[in-house]
Every structure is written in C-alpha cells, then in structure tokens.
Design goal:
The protein has one domain. By secondary structure, the protein is mainly α. The protein contains ten helices and no strands. The protein is about 80% helix and about 0% strand.
Length: about 200
Amino acid sequence: MDSRAYHLLGDLGLGGLFVGSVIEALGAPFPGGLMLVLAGVLISNGCLNYAGALALSVVGFNLGATAAYFIGRTVGEPFFSRFEKLFRIDGQKLDRARDWLEQSAAAFILVGRFVPMASNLTPYLAGMSRLSPARFLFYNSIFAVIWANFNLALGYYFSRSWQLVMRFTETHLPYIAGAALALYLAAALLIRRKYKI
C-alpha cells in the first residue's frame, strides 16, 4: 500500500472517495478497491466518517455504473462492434452475455463483476440488453454496498497492524501476488465454465 496514496486520499477526503468510486464504476483502470481500503484506515484513525464514506462510495459507484449503463443503452452494440479487438468481445460473446442476463439479471450484475474482461463491461452490457434501469440500479446497489463495506471494513480492522502488514507484504509480495493471481484465475475459470461466457 503506497503511503503517498494514503496521504493523498487523506487530503482529498470524502470528495476524493466519491470521485474515485465514480471512475471505478465506469470501468476505467483505477484501483477503487484499494482506495476504499485506505479510506478504512483513515476511518480507524478518526480522519474520515464511516457512514459518510460508505454513503458516498455507494452513491458514486451507482452514479458511474448508471452512466455506463446508459452509454451501453444509447450507443449499444455498434460501439462494441467497432472496437471489437480492443474489448475482445465478439458477437457470440455478446449473445451469451445477453442470454445470461435474461436468465438471471441478479447473477449477471453481481457475479459478472468478478469475471475477467466482463467486470468493467457489466453495466454497458446491461444497458445494451435493455434491462430496465430500475432493476439494474437495484442489483448494482446491492453490489456497491457489499463492495464498499468489504473494502472499508478490511482497511478499518487491519489498520492497527498496518505497519506489520506492510513489512510482511514487502518481504512476501511475490508469494502473495502469485497466490492471489492463482485464486483469481481459478475462480474466474469456474465462473466462466458455469455460465459459459
């Protein structure tokens, strides 16, 4: 965990947390989860308010995801077709995503966030599928609350042993990264096989 990022978030406060959550939900390559973990540490130190951080994270995430949903709804498939190579999504994958969404919108939105390459595109694909905005916002809000609470709590509860964790991470980083990558790929493979995406 970068101490510069920690101090920057401390300077930006809840406004920075809100903007970061919007960027994360839009699917941009941004470490939104890490930002919330750092916010949890700041909450433990009395620098941020938990209720405010949670509320603004959820609102920001929903705002960004809703914007992405409406981009997918208005621009739609021609946009993805034009940039097919960039997104690595062809017509067959889009059709499978639509089928999955029709079977279970909840699973698509909640589980789709954990599927590589699909996670950042989930709100766009939901918009393209013509899922109603109300249903999308409902399921996305559930995910946002779980995501924000988990990461804030992680930072909060581990903040007292932060220096110990930092030292351990620095000396064992390759092993931790390798184990995390292996778990992530295994989970992604199981999800892809189950839902055939």
